[in-house]
Design brief:
mainly alpha; 5 helices; globular
Length: 163
Amino acid sequence: KGWMIGVSETRFMPDSPVTRAQAATLLVRLLDIEPKTGQGNQPEFSDTADHWACSEIETARQHGIVEGIGNGRFEPDNVLTREQMAVLLDRILKSEGHKLNTFPDVSAAKTPWSFDAIWRMASAGLMAGFPDGKFYPKNAITRGQMSVLMERAAPQIKEAVIT
């Protein structure tokens, strides 16, 4: 579908972590969104100006999908965690609903900023835990996990209204 490409012509590396820049690029491709007009040419984040994914990161920011980490920075080459991915999808889908907490490592106290997003994505059947019942919110999401997640989420994402 052209959403993800390999790391070379012959390698995909499914166990490698996804970076924040790669996630922004993937979501911009999946949503088929363009930069908003009249937003200026300067990137919002000081650390993306010369980055290969500057345009995609800025497009995702303009559409409210990604945010920085503070102090005008995005940290594009840092790995994306599973909880961060849940929040990104939640921003796109604007999901409602909540189910009982069954992940022992996810709670309002342990994961306060991502708790609701993780549960909405789990309730929607988009994100799941591991065989031991845990979600591992601080772990990096891998390229293999991301590809499965995008395939699951694509029908709902395509219906989402992005402004």
